[in-house]
Design brief:
Layout lengths: L21 H14 L4 H14 L6 H12 L8 E2 L5 E2 L19 H21 L6 H13 L17 H9 L5
Antiparallel strand pairs: 1-2
Protein name: Transglycosylase SLT domain-containing protein
Organism: Coleophoma cylindrospora
InterPro entries: Lysozyme-like_dom_sf, Transglycosylase_SLT_dom_1
Length: about 180
Amino acid sequence: MGFTRYSGPASAFPGKETWKDFETIFNLNKAEMLRTGDSHQDVGRIWNAVVEAAKIGVEERVIFCIIMQESTGNVGVGTTTDPGNKPTGGLMQAEESPAFPGKHNLSQEQISAMVIAGTKHFKANLKQLDNADTATTIYRALRLYNSGSINENNLSDAKGATASYVSDIANRLQGRTN
């Protein structure tokens, strides 16, 4: 099933009642993670890391969908730069995240460190808004996470980042894979 394109304000994106549960989303994406070169152990450790990072105050399914959007769950993903030219790395391509380019069969500690760094960054975006666990706040925080700024009238206004970022994650939250 292909992705539906959403744009406009957060209210134009699908509500949480359309989102699948974490286990369903995770299972739908296992094969894609394994295709990156991840071992079955890496995939299991990603699950553990997401559950651990959720204690920071971000839903497991949101954390995991950011992982899939940023790195396809590839624990050995390389480092890139954000729109501000700062290096971003790890499963969630976050600033100050450890990265292990080209490596697989990582320890739980290494995988958790990547996911916790990205989750802390996303949580800071939530706090910058109203810190509510609502779809509209999450979508707005996703735009901040990807581009560092937000046009409240159009979450596809990427300011040099990925225009479809929020839309793609909305699709992932509904259980779609690309």
